[in-house]
């Protein structure tokens, strides 16, 4: 049997792809190395924006799956002395129960769940990916193979160089994280982030507190422990913890090849402000599934046909996340004292924070500029940096919107992208 789509990895992105493609009537195999009842099993929670449930046509989490509502996002300086607050619309979910519910939905729609199956290699014939081979030697064939295996370069490293999909992620673009999980969720409704803590950030939700950083020289756990001791009073026990890695860069320049695409964390579809990849990965999966469905209907899974995945993603989600990433760089590049000053004097406003988490273009009027200049007159360098950052953020977002319509324009697009990124430090 040849499946329409073979998906590696039953995380949020892989399950979203399976559910969406099966809705279109496609034959889908979803493969995961874990036993079925352990797929998605993890001790942590996940923060998901409410928009995704309507976008995917999936019922919102309820009951034991729903841990907390989140309606506020607090962004603190690294000292914890100043902060900005904006509205937020999301929930914290039990990752295991959420994943198992998505598996049930997928199965009800006819998706073949191949659990307890480890994939050893991609099958490639004449520059086309035609399926996968398991560790037992079983061949599972598909018209397209989708790598949604999490932050894992195992399969991307096997694809032909002609695909021009990046195989290596630079160490500076990989954050290491350590997270404590509260034994009992706190009765709060806010998400909190402390920026620029040793080249990383601290985050706190009603269910967990964690720290992620690209600084490979520091002790992640000790830094988190010291920060908790100085800034928080946590009465409830935190007997569970986990650690891992996450890409903290703009998405892959190209995500498709002949009979192949990559999605989720492996495509660097992560939010640079919130440090999460569930919502962004699921939204990326929805964008990918819509294009893949059309390609399957036309029986054309070439890179040229699949290129629309890149175009549709980068013109929307990719552009927003790139914009957020540049704003993040502008903020964390300030010294702790300058960051406190910018927050306290409203050189960086709550609206700026809101724009940074939504990807909305920050349009600062002439009068507002004068007011900010007056408030920041003692430190003009801060105002200059933030204005430059906003301009670069807009330029970067527009560059993603102008993503090339075929692979012939990729190299020049990447070259200009690097120029924009390198022009602001």
Number-wise, the strands total 16
Tell me the overall shape.
globular
Which spans of ≥5 residues are poorly predicted at pLDDT below 50?
none
Please trace the helix and strand order, writing H or E for each element.
EHEEHEEHEEEEEEEEHEEEHHHHHHH
For the largest beta-sheet, the strand count, sense and barrel status come to: 8 strands, mixed
| CA(first)-CA(last) distance | 52 Å
Strand content: 15-25%
Percentage of residues assigned to helices: 25-40%
What is the overall pLDDT average? 91
Number of helices: 11
Helix/strand structural class: alpha/beta
- Cα-based radius of gyration, to the nearest Å: 22 Å
Q: What's the gist of this structure?
A:
By secondary structure, the chain is an alpha/beta fold. The chain has 11 helices and 16 strands.
Description:
The structure is a single chain. With 425 residues, the protein is an alpha/beta fold. The chain has eleven helices and 16 strands. It has helices at residues 12-23, 51-56, 95-108, 220-231, 278-297, 303-332, 336-344, 350-358, 366-375, 380-401, 410-422, and strands at residues 2-8, 28-31, 45-49, 66-76, 83-94, 112-114, 119-125, 128-134, 139-147, 174-181, 190-194, 200-204, 208-213, 240-247, 256-257, 260-262. The strands form two sheets. Strands 1, 2, 6, 7, 8, 9, 15 and 16 form an eight-stranded mixed sheet that branches. Strand 15 and strand 16 (260-262) form a beta hairpin. Helix 1 (12-23) runs parallel beside helix 3 (95-108) and helix 5 packs antiparallel against helix 6.
